[in-house]
Amino acid sequence: MTKKLTIQLSDELEQRLAQRATQLNLSPETFILQTLTRSLELPQDRQTQPTQWPEEILHFTGIPDLIPFEDNREELLPPEVAELF
Length: 85
Description:
The protein is mainly α.
């Protein structure tokens, strides 16, 4: 059995949906169904828990003996500008 669902999209979201569906050679309806199905198949913890950095990263204070990048800025060469035409 299928159910019909009506949703309201902003013009910008509708345009992005149409572009992505076209890129994938899908109708917008098929794209929405596939995306919704994949989203609901995610493990429950990935659906409800925000991604969190590991504690080691959150509390990282740096490497004491490392020379700060900015200390060598004068030694950097400017980027080469490629000719376009």
